[in-house]
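Give me the 3D structure for Aldose 1-epimerase.
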Amino acid sequence: MKTIKKSVFGKLKSGEEVLEFELINKNNIKVKVLNYGGIIREIITPGKDGKFENIVLGFDTISEYEEQSPYFGCIVGRSAGRISKGRFEIDGQEYRLAQNNGVNNLHGGNKGFDKAIWDTKNLIDEDSVSLVLNYLSVDGEEGFPGNLKTQVTYTLTDQNEFEIKFSGVSDKKTLINLTNHTYFNLSGNLKDNILNHKLTLKADNVIYVDDQTIPTGVIADVKGGVFDFTEEKKIGEDINKQEEQLLNCGGYDHPWVFNKSKIAQIKLEDEKSGRGMEISTDQPVVVIYASNQMGDELILSGGRESERNLGVCLETQDYPDAINQPSFPCKVYESGEVYTACTKYKFFNC
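Predicted structure for Aldose 1-epimerase (350 residues):
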């Protein structure tokens, strides 16, 4: 029976209580979400053997999320990805942001949306359950202009779809580029890394990045190269090739530009577990990060030791650092103009 369960997950250093919400559909698929950072802590789906297991990376305690999380499962904002040199201009006025990734701004700054406590509301409909999260990012927070009212809705349907809807409106001209930073691993309870996962992308072009993972402005054709996933290919097939773009990031940490498509733009499958996932979005870009920088320094849910390439992030979003890239489409939102974005994940057995 579909339902939403609420429990106390723990307390932050500040003493603030963190809640966990468990969304369950009629097929017993479960999504566990924290009101801290809107973090997706677990997604429980069946493999081909019928066994229900977790398919995302996360921690067992709130202190680990607060102190050492590499953005596991969280809402990223105000602006996903890196903003070059932590600065941008709107109408001739320069805004300086936190430089929390070398000289650059990453994922909104030192205290982005991933570290906020969000207000929550539960909704149960005829064939779905939803958790609605709201957060007010005040004018000047982490250097961004405008009071930004933000809403994120997580919906789990009885058709085994999980939908994330973003919306926001500011009282000043501002940047908004939101995403979710879940690390997926379809093997089930992190039994294997993701190098044998098969990935398909409706994307003929990739954006090149420099050695700080800042877009260079070059949008390149992927055909026949290491970034070509237009036909099904294992993530690990080319990831360790000695090519400059891969060496810049230690593997995949790049934005792909979607073709115009009315069908799912992304498919991820793990043949061994029999789990698959299709992703459709109204966003133009997906940043794919194959956890290249992850080592064995973390203890994950269930006591699993972390390792390189243990998860893959599929961050649907607008063009990263577009405000500083003359060749990219760039959207600056006017006062009162509504930002929206939507991404759907369809779980299946292959």
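The domain at 3-349 is CATH 2.70.98.10 (Beta-galactosidase; Chain A, domain 5). Let me know if you want a second pass.
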